[in-house]
UniProtKB/TrEMBL annotation, chain A:
Transmembrane segments: none annotated. GO terms for molecular function: 4 iron, 4 sulfur cluster binding; coproporphyrinogen oxidase activity; metal ion binding. Belongs to the anaerobic coproporphyrinogen-III oxidase family. HemW subfamily. This is Heme chaperone HemW. Keywords: 4Fe-4S, Chaperone, Cytoplasm, Heme, Iron, Iron-sulfur, Metal-binding, Oxidoreductase, S-adenosyl-L-methionine. It comes from Halanaerobacter jeridensis. InterPro entries: Aldolase_TIM (IPR013785), Coproporphyrinogen-III_oxidase (IPR034505), Elp3/MiaA/NifB-like_rSAM (IPR006638), HemN_C (IPR010723), HemW-like (IPR004559), rSAM (IPR007197), rSAM_sf (IPR058240). Its main location: cytoplasm. Coiled coil: none annotated. It is found in: Cytoplasm. GO terms for biological process: porphyrin-containing compound biosynthetic process. The keyword Repeat does not apply. Probably acts as a heme chaperone, transferring heme to an unknown acceptor. Binds one molecule of heme per monomer, possibly covalently. Binds 1 [4Fe-4S] cluster. The cluster is coordinated with 3 cysteines and an exchangeable S-adenosyl-L-methionine.
Automatic annotation (TrEMBL), chain B:
This is Elongation factor 4. The keyword DNA damage does not apply. Residues 7-188 form the Tr-type G domain. It holds the Pfam family EFG_C. The gene is lepA. Required for accurate and efficient protein synthesis under certain stress conditions. May act as a fidelity factor of the translation reaction, by catalyzing a one-codon backward translocation of tRNAs on improperly translocated ribosomes. Back-translocation proceeds from a post-translocation (POST) complex to a pre-translocation (PRE) complex, thus giving elongation factor G a second chance to translocate the tRNAs correctly. Binds to ribosomes in a GTP-dependent manner. Its main location: membrane. It catalyses: GTP + H2O = GDP + phosphate + H(+). GO terms for cellular component: plasma membrane. It is found in: Cell membrane. Belongs to the TRAFAC class translation factor GTPase superfamily. Classic translation factor GTPase family. LepA subfamily. Belongs to the GTP-binding elongation factor family. LepA subfamily. It is a peripheral membrane protein. GO terms for biological process: positive regulation of translation. One of its GO terms (molecular function) is GTP binding.
Length: 380, 601
């Protein structure tokens, strides 16, 4: 296992909350942003000290909407990281951006500060659905932002796309995929809408204003996604992720390979190899802790061996390549096939997982009902 | 504690219909005599099991000792033995009554005498007890003490002797205590004769073994004494004796006429059998007390641990429950679908539910319960007669000459406005109308002969809901009667699941099969493949439903490194599966095995 860490930085501000979103974000407010930036600076120092200025292989600035901050502020954050952490020479720095809030200056400054991967929250190329989702951008904003980024030499761009939207047809989803393919980002994340509690969508669902699409159609859309993207040189490497060869998200792969990542910002999650935990979610409370010179960890749990094993499985199997049996054995001193002998036998028999060339991975069918498969690997 | 003169001891019970205020009255008596302070008082103190308090019913007999100074200034010891009020537990009542000389008959002033009240009076009279009628809840606006008094005449009691109380408001409590002192006879045992004591209850204590609750008839019992259980001849040395105050309180000796408990390192629960007689091993009494007739189970079901390895735990738990519940019977049984378990016999549906709940709560067992069944008599063509308590064991149709099923005499008491709907229900459930009589201007008693199998399948709940909760039901075994019965099999994914088989009347078989298949479709969650559910009689499939396959079940969203959230979802999914029984390749939830009970809901 590598000594290098990933680093996730959470920017908890949004211009407007999307109708499906239950992530930690609030409306932007200048005073609060500046208080947050001060706290973040302190946190960078505290976290770097805690882990003795560790080497980072990836940085991921997520949100909320990172692009709501000015290019200057984003550069400052990255420069502070540069001072305190040991940055790998081929560091991947991803920034999530909302097409509706991107400016040329911002893109230029962040590029200069080292951002080399842009993840655009496109979601759809259909304005009607964008409105329904509560997005503040239009289809044209996406095209404009994308072209701008290309002009400024961003050569690794990802689109987030969403399907299984209430009222969406298979054709409409195909249209969105086609338009994404035409623009040609290096990476595409495609995931189905999950209506989370305490969101506008959840309320609409309860009031009968929207209706969930059928499991059958959801499945059709998912299968079509895989098919269409593969025809166009995007290969699925994880349940919801596709890329042109060589453009997997290195940061997200850290999660799936159960490697270490550190966290900055309110509500951000970390796993340092021993402890899994997360920061205080409330932004003011978060700031308050850091202003007092303390880390703002809300909760952390030391993982047992069994928990580490479970998590290695439920994360690793999300990747199409699955889990290397040799690496597993090296890490846990016990063979995976021994620990899960009965489960594996059963799941192989049901054609849900497969074992070949020293790796254990989901079959196509297994991927479609991955929850059923992955839950079998929960031991506790 | 110094010895109390036997003529200052009174042993009594309270008998009542469910809800007529028995436990509240008991609580007031305890409070009044200072057996427990108001501060310590938890509502319905005598109902010590969580289950009892939740359901507001008494299941187990309980004993408590009270010290009372009467109006004449004499000090008395009053032993109250509480009894269950539900129809399923009349056996428990008879046990308790055998240890008493008197009984308070509590009647709700607005409800009047009910079926269960009568049954309990008969039990009290059989045991030769002095009955003191107590008309309770006189504070209620709907109270009609005069009407209740008239009803007392009808059942042969003297209305002038009735006491008027409101246990809730604390009215008439002292009158009750005075009546106990003045009207219940003192015990007439002989202190000098060899020990003779009746075990009326036993509980299991994991540290001290079986603890017996007993009433001393003759002689006395104290630590160090060698005692003998007369039914088994087994001998034990008494390590502790005590009284109920109301928690167990150690004393030096328990004398004739008194009620107490005993610990004697009795490891095996079967050696402290309720109804047995305890005597002095070195100076035994000549003849044991009559004891009790063990109650006969009326309802059977299979109990299976969800996790096969819990089989031994289930056995231990059943052994322990059996210690203080002689009416529970169980025998090992194997089901193709459910593996190893027990076929258990119960007094009724409530009894079954309570045992099941106690096993799950007190012994932390996850159980699958099959639908309740009664005992059928199968006359085979070769002349052999079988008693079948598990539908799965029914021989094939062409080997059967005839089948007989148990019939009960069912008495339904209810206000006349609900008679129509009750009769409709009774007829739907194959009841044969016998009689209808008015007990007064509004209250009616309907008498039906009904197959017990229909009663155990949720008849009472149905009756309650159709009569807005007004009807009460009482039933007694009448005999066996031939009936056109068939075995209905359920096939899940083409394989018959023995634990889902049931025996039904030919006329309704088609309808029940269809309904059952439909219910099972609701209960069985989507699996990874399509699962056909079929109902069949012999080789004829009479109904078919299909549980659709789960097509897509995958968490796609990444949640930015929040692994615990993903894991929580998967854990929930796994937990859900744990509560299911793997039958062949299909996961069937526990409730599905009781699905037949929910038909018609």
């Amino acid at each position: 296992m590598t000594e290098d860490y990933g680093l996730y930085i959470h920017i908890p501000f949004c211009a407007q909350k999307c109708h499906y979103c239950d992530f930690n974000s609030i409306a932007a407010d200048d005073d609060l942003i500046s208080r947050y930036l001060d706290a973040l600076k302190k946190e960078i120092k505290l976290v770097a000290d805690k882990y003795y200025s560790p080497q980072l292989q990836t940085i991921y600035i997520g949100g909320g909407t990172p692009s709501i901050l000015s290019g200057q502020d984003l550069s400052t954050i990255l420069n502070q990281c540069r001072q305190k952490f040991d940055l790998n020479s081929n560091l991947e720095i991803t920034m999530e951006a909302n097409p509706g809030t991107l400016s040329e200056e911002q893109l230029r400054l962040t590029k200069q500060a080292g951002v080399n991967r842009l993840s655009l929250g496109v979601q759809s190329f259909n304005n009607q659905f964008l409105t329904k989702l509560g997005r503040i951008h239009s289809k044209d904003d996406v095209i404009t932002s994308y072209r701008l980024a290309r002009e400024l030499d961003f050569d690794n761009i990802s689109f987030d796309l969403m399907f299984a939207l209430p009222g969406q047809s298979l054709n409409q989803w195909e249209n969105t995929l086609q338009q994404a393919i035409e623009l040609g980002p290096e990476h595409i994340s495609a995931y189905n809408l999950k209506i989370e509690p305490n969101t506008v969508f959840a309320q609409w669902l309860e009031e009968g204003k929207i209706e969930k699409i059928s499991e059958e159609l959801d499945l059709k859309m998912y299968r079509r996604t895989i098919e269409l993207l593969e025809e166009n040189n995007y290969y699925q490497y994880e349940i919801s992720n596709f890329s042109q060869p060589g453009y997997n998200s290195r940061h997200n792969k850290i999660y799936w390979q159960n490697q270490e990542y550190l966290a900055l910002g309110p509500g951000a999650h970390f796993y340092d190899g021993q402890f899994r935990g997360y920061n205080i979610t409330d932004i003011k409370d978060y700031c308050h802790h850091l202003e007092a010179g303390q880390l703002a960890i809300a909760e952390q749990n030391k993982l047992s061996r069994v928990e580490k094993i479970e998590e290695t499985l439920i994360l690793g199997l999300r990747l199409n390549q699955g889990i290397s049996l040799a690496e597993f054995k090296k890490k846990f001193n016990q063979s995976l096939t021994e620990i899960y002998e009965i489960e594996i036998q059963k799941l192989v028999g049901q054609d849900l997982i497969n074992q070949s060339k020293g790796r254990l991975f989901l079959t196509d069918h297994g991927r479609e009902i991955a929850n059923q498969v992955l839950s079998s690997f929960i031991l506790s | 504690m110094t010895q109390v003169s036997q003529n200052k001891i009174r042993n009594f019970s309270i008998i009542a219909h469910v809800d007529h205020g028995k436990s509240t009255l008991a609580d007031r008596l305890l409070e009044f005599t200072g057996a427990i302070s108001e501060r310590e008082m938890e509502e319905q103190l005598l109902d010590t099991m969580d289950l009892e308090r939740e359901r507001g019913i008494t299941i187990k007999a309980q004993a408590v000792r009270m010290d009372y100074e009467s109006e004449t200034g004499d000090d008395y010891v009053l032993n109250l033995i509480d009894t269950p009020g539900h129809v399923d537990f009349s056996y428990e009542v008879s046990r308790s009554l055998a240890a008493c000389e008197g009984a308070l008959l509590v009647i709700d002033a607005s409800q009047g005498v009910e079926a269960q009240t009568l049954a309990n009076i008969y039990l009290a009279l059989e045991n030769d007890l002095e009955i003191i009628p107590v008309i309770n809840k006189i504070d209620l606006p709907s109270a009609d003490a005069d009407r209740v008094k008239e009803e007392l005449i009808d059942i042969g009691l003297d209305p002038d002797e009735a006491l008027l109380t409101s246990a809730k408001e604390g009215i008439g409590i002292e009158d009750v205590l005075e009546a106990v002192v003045n009207r219940v006879p003192a015990p007439d045992g002989n202190q000098d004769e060899p020990l003779k004591a009746l075990i009326f209850d036993s509980v299991y204590d994991s540290y001290r073994g079986a603890i017996s609750y007993f009433r001393v008839i003759n002689g006395s019992i104290k630590p160090g004494m060698n005692i003998e259980m007369m039914s088994t001849g087994k001998k034990f040395e008494v390590s502790e004796v005590g009284v109920f105050a109301p928690q167990r309180k150690e004393v030096d000796e328990i004398h004739s006429g008194e009620v107490g408990y005993m610990a004697a390192s009795i490891k095996n629960v079967k050696d402290a059998r309720v109804g047995d007689t305890i005597t002095d091993a070195d100076n035994p009494t000549a003849k044991p007390l009559p004891g009790y007739q063990p109650a006969k189970p009326m309802v059977y079901c299979g109990l299976y641990p969800v996790e096969g390895e819990d089989y031994e735990l289930l056995k231990d738990a059943l052994d322990k429950l059996k210690l203080n519940d002689a009416s529970l019977t169980f025998e090992p049984e194997t089901s193709e679908a459910l593996g190893f378990g027990y076929r258990c016999g119960f007094l009724g549906l409530l009894h079954m539910e309570i045992i099941q709940e106690r096993l799950e709560r007190e012994y932390d067992l996850d159980l699958v319960t099959t639908a309740p069944s009664v005992v059928y008599k199968i006359y085979k063509t070769d002349g052999e007669v079988l008693e079948i308590e598990n539908p799965a064991n029914m021989p094939e149709r062409h080997h059967i000459e005839k089948i007989e099923e148990p019939i009960v005499k069912a008495e339904i008491m209810l206000p006349d406005e609900h008679v129509g709907s009750a009769m409709e229900l009774a007829e739907e459930k194959r009841g044969k109308f016998k009689n209808m009589e008015y007990l007064d201007e509004v209250r009616v008693r309907l008498t039906y002969d009904m197959p017990l199998s229909e009663i155990v399948l949720d008849f009472f709940d149905n009756l309650k809901s159709r009569t807005k909760g007004y009807a009460t039901l009482d039933y007694e075994f009448k005999g066996y009667q031939e009936a056109e019965l068939v075995k209905l099999d359920i096939l899940v994914n083409k394989d018959p699941v023995d634990a889902l088989s049931c025996i039904v009347h030919d006329e309704f078989a088609y309808e029940i099969g269809r309904e059952l298949a439909k219910k099972l479709k609701e209960y069985i969650p989507e699996q990874m493949f399509e699962v056909p559910i079929q109902a069949a009689i012999g080789n004829d499939v009479i109904a078919r439903e299909t549980v659709k396959a789960k097509r897509k079940d995958v968490l796609q969203k990444c949640y930015g490194g929040d692994v615990s959230r993903k894991k929580k979802l998967l854990k929930q999914q796994k937990e859900g599966k744990k509560r299911m029984k793997q039958v062949g390749s299909v996961e069937i939830p526990q409730e599905a095995f009781m699905a037949v009970l929910t038909i018609g809901d």
